[in-house]
Batch of 4 targets.
Target 1
Amino acid sequence: MATASFEGEGWQTLFDGGSLAGWQIINFAGGGEVRVDLGLVELGMGSPFTGIRYTNNFPKTNYEIAFDAMRTTGSDFFCGLTVPVGESHCSLIVGGWGGGLLGISCLDGYDASENETTKFMGFDQRRWYRIRLRVTTDRIEGWIDAEKLVNVETTGRRISVRPGEIEECIPLGIASWQTGAAVREIKWRPVSGPAGPLK
């Protein structure tokens, strides 16, 4: 399946499609195999985590990151995207808690299953989803394909990753949980502010 075009301009490549240049396989205990094949990063099912971490400089705010991801095996999250939010970090969880949960971990100590970003939706096996996250000075916005599903004010909020092994993804990483996954076309671009109004 051909990749969809990226909305807007200014996108820069983070994954060259042929190697893990600029990335590092995270040495999770029980991590699955990670390999690059035909333009994809394949994350084998881990026990529990498998993931990669970006090793080059990356902005702390005013950026978008986007890529395609799919679940290949298993039934839990096929995308745990950990990103910088100013001096803190958080994770966008896609397909967690049994397969259908989406949300941000963590806001004021509440993880993706417990805060106002929590949503449930169906994620089909072996189907590509375009995941896009926009982090600006006072907002986090996120989309699955063309649908905006995360739009949360961060001013005065405590932003963090969930305590545990996913902290190894800091500052920028992609991981799966007891699930095989694939990602492709990892790109980013600088932005100057939120994409739309808060509500």
Target 2
Amino acid sequence: MEKIQVNGISLAYEKLGVGAPLMLIHGFPLDHTIWNDVANLLKGDFTLILPDLRGFGQSTTVETLYTMSDMADDLVALLDHFGIEKTAIAGHSMGGYVALAFAKKYLQRMSGLGLVASQAAADTPERKANRYKDADAVAQQGVGLIAEGMTPKLSANAGVQSFVRPLMEGQTPSAVIGALKAMAEREGLFTYLSSVSFPVVLVHGGVDALIPIERAREIKAVLPSARLVELQGIGHMPMMESPRGTAEGLRLLGH
């Protein structure tokens, strides 16, 4: 992986393929490798940019509090590094929250938005409180408890589980804690989404145990022009459980 220094961190990324740019943002608490199968399917259609968000994978982080908007700042610096003025961005789960923050702050830099197993709603007060409890637990006990609790919720597929669990266990406590707090404080962007004019694609598994498919349908209701790709029998990891279905959905961002 290549790395650049931005905003006090080292941001790692992979870049491959040919065509119009498409940035793929991973979810929590994972890294860019969850996109490997989809990247292989899309590299003939797009120039793919796959960052490790701050703290995850091979990227470093800061110990101070940060926001989804700060994470979007990291990614716009990466685009500047490449001299890319405009790109489509697709984010998985938390990566979708970062993509939405990017869209709000850098609308002129986006040519399309993909939300994969994600949502536009803010946390409920209960969910927000639980994220802070999880952050405290990670500070006390490490990231293993997050990996143990999340693995079965991410996917019922044994092969996917065997990939994601060690990936989660390898993340640093500071990255997991920072991301939990940033997710807890994110704003809801339903109203904002209804005003965008670029293509929006929603890819969602029908049996997602973490973010129900109803969240994608809610976005479709406020933004009828969005393309909703429902993948039946698929959980929270569509890019790994159904790489072809996910790639076909994301190809719509090039049209």
Target 3
Amino acid sequence: MQLFKIHVDLVKPHQDILQRIMASLEKSKVTIENNDILAVTSKVVSLSQGRLVKLSKIKPSAAAVKLSGEFNLDAEYVELILREADEVYGGTDQALCTVKDGVMIANAGVDRKNIPSGYAVLFPKGPHEVANTLRRKIHRLTGKFVGVIIVDSRVTPLRLGTVGVALGFAGFNPVLDCRGSKDLYGKPLQITRHCRVDDLAGAAHLLMGETIERVIAVLIRGAPIRISHNLMRPVRMDAVKVPPNRCLFINALSYVGKPKW
């Protein structure tokens, strides 16, 4: 499997990110081929959608003020998190544990890293639809059938540091169902599924980094993935989702819903 970094200068709000990506590939003399997968950072998607918010314009609620003191966060920042989150489970120093669009992620994806001081960037709007749109545009430009992943980072239980996670995807089956397959000793698997889309997001995230890398996308070639040639039949986003009452972590910790702060 090969991974190609796609470097660009700083992305500004409302810029066409596909145009920037294609120009970078051309400069690097890398051409898109059938069955490639383009992984794009969620932050540049958010910037292209203009989802940049000036924190000084946010009026924090009483709940945000209370949580800001409890978890060592600015009240304006917490207010944005509360507005964006679907569920809030609590938190730790400088981070709230939240769910956004079916993904457990810190601070509802509201981020202040790698953007101008005094601003926050929100979770991308409709990442699954963005992935589908990019896939169709790439086909129109190149005639190639590719997969697309919108990549963010998150932390995982009892592990230090961030890993990649797919917020949206298009063009391939994200999960391989291994149930019924036999292991090395002939025993049938009972519950195992392989979330290949998050594995690919993790590989891309390794090159994207978290600081000054300026790698807004990664072209993945040779992945053991079958890319669909049907542009009009998008993969359902819920193909990777697990309801809270079936989630190992939330269910084990006695899921009780969104607290009334």
Target 4
Amino acid sequence: MSVLARSFYRRPTVEVARALLGHLLVRSVGGGLLVARIVETEAYVGEEDPACHAACGRTARNAVMYGAPGHAYVYFTYGMHHCLNVVTEREGFPAAVLIRAAEPRWGQERMRAARGLGPRAAPTLVASGPARLAQAFGLTRRHNGLDLADPRGELRVERGGRRRGEKIGVSTRVGIRVGADRPWRFFLEGNPHVSRGPRAK
């Protein structure tokens, strides 16, 4: 597999959010690999987007969003969950795509253990939701700022693709109180690993 180049992310965030569907999130850990196919994303665009973490301007927490595209922005929320984002657009403009859900492909036993799931738990409980995904991959603030375009990086996005007949669904973003009317959530229609949310537009 080939790692997605930085130029892939140096585009409008909404475009990147759609384009990420079907590609593979990969983490090298403990001599093995964790691999999951991205099936759901959300776009957050600039200081004018009230739901974007940059709406308050640049801070120590969101500084990575102002950096080069293709880096991981990992934040901690509600005092208990981590979430993974991919920085997009040009350097100096704060924008990112939240990876909301993924379909496990490799290293599922390790992902299940990280999630505290037993062998009979449904596969859809592994990474269907941003907090579940981060937990399955063992992601924390330690991974904030990692270069996802580095072929030798611990965390990266490799080229995958959509299957024949797969369609992209679109809806408003979920789990936010402001900017919830923007149709910037994208997902692979019919995929059971997509998290719950508004119906497609």
